[in-house]
Design brief:
The protein has helices at residues 48-52, 56-66, 78-86, 103-109, 114-128, 182-186, 196-213, 217-230, 235-247, 251-264, 269-281, 285-299, 303-315, 319-332, 337-349, 353-366, 370-387; strands at 3-6, 75-76, 94-95, 111-112, 131-137, 143-146, 149-153, 156-161, 169-170, 175-178, 191-194. It is an alpha/beta fold.
Length: 388
């Protein structure tokens, strides 16, 4: 099992502007190994300017969205901008977990995950003269599956507030929190203000993960390296570098990278889990089993731990085992639409169409956004059509 430490998800492409590539930085950390990917510079990462760039069309959208009807350029509304971003009559913004895009690409494609949504909204708020702050939300470990990999998702959202410019008068609320998943805000998870530099490193980390699952290993190294140099405190980059090193057969370097992540945070269970996987590849079963027992014990109260085991079992055709994992997850939290949908999938695989339909209806009710609700409703219609 490969686990990638990604920071995208709910809230939470180069653009056309000309720019130069970031300066080359010599490897300052022992866990970076440029000699393995000597052509990594052929895959330059987006600069900060490119990531946060807005085209004239996007800026015009911001101007229309913020200036109060009948008012002047000095009368603006935070609420109006945030509403316009989500308003289907304006942008029709869709949630897509793998939409790791720059601000302007997000605007043009009208699709985002929590990180790209926050990046775009930050750029728009800056153009409008508002203040914007990124927040990293401390959520329980939460995984999704994509192309045979388990992704550990982080959560980012944004607060947009009035500026300190005395010449600009805000109309309406003084701030607004921007998040794809309102449940995150209602749950009041702890969150900390993070820098623009850390957000950029997260963007590079996500792009590296995209490259890794596409088997573009040198491109993946270029992005992971950029993230590690920019924000060496970001544990996810070192974990993902370890996965990359293992996948190219460099087991010693993989261990070095996982150790680096664990030196930053000895409680990083994803680093421990990947270290156990590495020990198995090296034939060190006792070490692997010892780590697995520790990790499993610490995760057993997390519904998403059981959920992702159910997803993996379902993919491998172990339906009864998958059902057991989903049921455990459901007992721990019966409000998560992903878990309920998992129950529907496994019952369908087992041929129990009635139960599959019942859980799919529950998933529709629990869906946090219109995209998921539509997805489940469409599956429900297909299920009904197959029964007739």
């Amino acid at each position: 099992m490969n686990r990638l430490c990604l920071v995208f998800l709910l809230s939470c492409a180069l653009v056309g502007c000309a720019s130069t590539s970031p300066p080359v930085v010599l490897s300052p950390y022992p866990a970076l190994h440029d000699e393995l990917f000597t052509s990594y510079e052929a895959f330059p990462v987006e600069t900060e300017e490119e990531v946060f760039y807005l085209s004239p069309e996007a800026k015009a959208f911001v101007d229309r969205a913020t200036i109060i009807s009948g008012g002047s350029a000095h009368h603006k509304s935070v609420k109006k901008l945030v509403s316009a971003i989500f308003d289907h009559s304006e942008m029709g913004l869709l949630y897509r977990n793998n939409a790791n895009s720059t601000a302007d690409t997000t605007f043009n494609n009208r699709a985002a995950n929590c990180l790209s949504l926050s990046i775009m909204t930050y750029a728009m708020a800056q153009h409008a003269g508002f203040e914007a702050k990124f927040y990293e939300v401390d959520i329980p470990e939460y995984w999704t599956r994509r192309e045979g990999f388990s992704f550990l998702n982080g959560h980012i959202n944004l607060r947009v507030g009035i500026s300190k410019d005395p010449t600009v008068m805000n109309i309406g609320p003084s701030f607004a929190d921007v998040d794809f998943d309102p449940q995150m805000l209602r749950n009041h998870f702890p969150r900390i203000n993070v820098t623009k530099k850390r957000i950029l490193a997260m963007f590079y980390n996500n792009k590296g993960a995209d490259a890794l699952i596409a088997n573009s290993y040198t491109r993946a190294y270029s992005y992971f390296r950029a993230a590690a140099v920019l924000a060496p405190e970001l544990e996810q980059s070192w974990v993902n570098l370890g996965v990359l090193y293992r996948m190219v057969g460099e087991f010693d370097y993989a261990q070095q990278s996982y150790d680096y992540a664990l030196n930053l945070n000895e409680n990083n269970l994803t680093a421990w889990e990947n270290l156990a996987i590495l020990h198995r590849h090296k034939g060190e079963m006792d070490k692997a089993d010892e780590i697995k027992v520790m990790v499993d014990f610490r995760r057993k109260s997390n519904p998403f731990y059981h959920f992702i085991l159910g997803e993996q079992a379902l993919e491998e055709g172990r339906y009864e085992e998958a059902l057991t994992f989903y049921q455990r997850a459901l007992r721990l939290d019966n409000t998560r639409h992903e878990v309920v949908f998992g129950m529907s999938k496994v019952y369908y695989a087992l041929g129990d169409i009635s139960s599959a339909e019942r859980f799919l209806k529950r998933a529709v009710l629990l869906a946090p956004n219109e995209q998921d609700e539509h997805r489940y409703t469409s599956k429900l219609s297909s299920l009904a059509n197959n029964e007739t």
